[in-house]
Amino acid sequence: MREYAAAYRAGAHDAERLALLEQHHAAVLERQAEVQRHLAALERKIAAYRQAIAASRAAEQPPA
Description:
mainly alpha
């Protein structure tokens, strides 16, 4: 966005500013996808720990 602002101040043509915005858009989408992958991995790990803890607690319970 800094490049876009600098281009705007420098009087860049609309096509040049559009290209900068499209590049930034693509970069943001790429980062968003990476964050989604990290979030999915965290959710899998959390679910695995919750399952392991629940199984451990169930094993500790005396039979009724």
